[in-house]
Each structure stands twice: as structure tokens, then as C-alpha cells.
Automatic annotation (TrEMBL):
Name of the protein in its database record: peptidoglycan lytic exotransglycosylase
A Pfam family of this chain: 3D
Gene Ontology process terms (BP): cell wall organization; peptidoglycan catabolic process; peptidoglycan turnover
Transmembrane feature ranges: none
Listed GO CC annotations: outer membrane
Lineage: Bacteria, Pseudomonadati, Campylobacterota, Epsilonproteobacteria, Campylobacterales
Keyword field: Cell wall biogenesis/degradation, Lyase, Signal
EC numbers: 4.2.2.n1
Single GO molecular function: hydrolase activity, hydrolyzing O-glycosyl compounds
ATP-binding found in the keyword field: no
Amino acid sequence: MRYSLPLLICLLFVLSGCAPKSAPTPQDEAFVTSVKAQNERFNALAEHENFDELLSLFRQNCAAPLSKKAYPNVCEQALHVKDARAFFQNSFELKKIQPNDQRSMLTGYYEPLLHGSMKKSARFKYPVYAKPKDLVAIVGEHDKKMRGRSVKGKMLPYYTRAEIEKHKINAEVLCYVDDKIDLFFMEVQGSGRVEFEDGKVVFIGYADSNGHPYKSLGREMFNRGIFTNLEDISLQSIKAWLVAHPNQIDAMLNTNPSYVFFRKMEQRATGSLGLVLTPERSVAVDRSYIPLGSLLAVKSESPNYKVDKFVFAQDTGGAIKGPNRADMFMGYGERAQWIAGELKAPLEVWIMQPKF
């Protein structure tokens, strides 16, 4: 019996128990490298992670509609998990977010405490405004929300910070506080607490803004030569300079035209996602690059603060711009204020993408 050459070759492979193999392609090698890097990154995060706590926070995060939109299947699965570590390792893949030309940086924010009164007095004379009744919001190009005021059928920009200082605006005064500088920083933080003389504490949260772009006071002071090194700029150093130059407080604060309006809250600091923020687990991000509700991994180190952990994108901020830019919520109290005021550190970010 005679066999054709192709048939003999096939029989040879069958008898030898082997199949013809091709060399790995660059795509194959890239995939293997990516999986290896993901496993190494996850194991590094797992060294100090409390996965049971993370699972509980993930379930809370899933209470927000935007989180469910980002993780529809995984949010459902999270309700029935018994092995928390296996759930995060098997349900997600870590994708590193590559930086652009904007600075990659981690900063911090906190929940400040102010002292106030419901009545205006010589001490308590700085109003905490609710959202003005004449503030109008419209949706513009690319779904960008713009704010202004309607005057005789025309849409005009809303008053700047300097103009609000001079005009009596059409807004409820929630209370009066005794420190203009602290009020300014509460706007920057987006929320805070006001303690009255009888010991009662009211939670204050972000309601809206006047629509003008946020301009960094620290950057303005650097441009004016007040600070000669960007690394010397912190909440503490800015406040110390303002206190030492009382005649220049208004002029300096008004270089930031943005103004924040507040509302009374029943609970402590709440982010843009609508959830109560968790200290050192909640971050503010630029939602143009990172969807709100996302589970992230961040890595950063400064002389006073080191972080390498899973966090949740639950807030936004006017100064948070770029893919590798985040603001860590530090919580309430002196430690939180000190770290948040000083923190400026290089940042790496990974987003946890669902596998199904």
C-alpha cells in the first residue's frame, strides 16, 4: 500500500503524539506579559488589603446608579460572595491608566470644622450661601453643564467671587461663620461641619457653583513670587501668609472667580456619586477619564504619606484634571487636615475593569 507524502506527515505527527506548533506572536507575548504584570500588581496590593472590608465597601458603592452602570454583573455577584479575595481577583482585571501631558499627582482633601451662628454679629459675619434662586443651569456642547443668570431673556454669566462679595445675591443664608479664610477652604474641600456656640453641629455639603473656572490660589501666589518653590505651597502655608497679611485677604481670595454654594446635610461629607465618603478609600477624579463609581488601585508616596491600595472614584473637583490625577478624602480632624494640606505626590492609577 502506498501513501501520499502529506498523509505520511500527518501520520507521523499523530504517532509521535505531537501537533505542529508555531512560534509565539508578539501579541501572544504581550498578553502573557500583561497577565503576569496584573498578577504581580494584585499580589502586591493584597499584602496589606482587608478584602472583607473592601467587599463591604464595594457593596455600598454599588448602591449608586453610576456604579451599577459601570459594574452591572459584578455588583449582582458581590451580594453572594463568600471568598472576598477570590472575588476581586477573578472578577476584575487591572488596567493601568496611562498619563497624558497633565501632571500625575495625588493630593488630599478633608472635612473642615468651622464655627458659626444662625444670626449675623460682629464675630459671625461671613455668610454661607445656599444655591441662589436666580442661578440657572443649561446643558451645552458635549453635555457640558453651564451656569448663569437670565436677564431680560438673555443668559449672562453668574456673579464672580468678587461680585458676590459686593452684591446681595438672591440666596438663603444657611448660617454665618467667623473666618473668611476657613470658609474659602471649605469651598475648596466641597463640604464641612459648622459648630454653633451651643455645641450643635450642622453638616454642610456642596449644592452648586457659580460656573466660573476654579483657579488655584497657591499657583497664583507662586506666579506673584509670594512662594518661590511650588513644593512650599500647602493649605497651611497659604493660610499662614493670609493671616499675616490681612489687608490682602480679599484681593487674593478673589483671584479665584469660582464660588461654591452649599446645602444642609443629614450626614457627613458626601461626594458627587451621592454616597458618604470613606476616609482614605474615596477619591475625587476627573470623570472625563475615569467613570464615577469605578474601583481603582492607586500608588503614591510622599515624605508624609504613603498609599498603595484599592479606592473608589466617588467624587469630583474643579482642580482635578487629567487621567492620573486624584484627590484622596482624608476624613475629619487634625490629622486629616494636616495630611490633606501637605499632600502633593506622584501618582500611578489602575482601573479595575470587570471581566464579565
